[in-house]
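Incident review: delayed structure delivery

Summary: a single-chain prediction request sat in the queue longer than the usual turnaround. Root cause was a stuck worker, restarted by the on-call engineer. No data loss occurred. The affected request and its eventual output are reproduced below so the record is complete for anyone auditing the incident later.

Affected input:
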Amino acid sequence: MFKLLKIALWIGVGYVLGARAGRQRYEQIASAATRVRDSGPVQSAAPVVKDKVSTVAGAAADKVNLPRGGAHAAEPTTGPTA
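Output delivered after worker restart:
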């Protein structure tokens, strides 16, 4: 379900950025996006998605030996020493 939501989001972003239908159509699209963002199902799913992203990001950071919450690589724990 998350994958489908992600695909739909990117299709929407691409359409909004690529549309050449003028300001009125942009306003329609932006209004619809705001309604979706503020809808009950999306709002109730937000904490679940946030927790899942945090869990997956933490697991990925562990695999590449990065400190959680940071973008800088951790010092290597193995390898040649100087």
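Verification: The helical segments are 2-18, 23-38, 40-63.
Action items: add queue-age alerting; document worker restart procedure.
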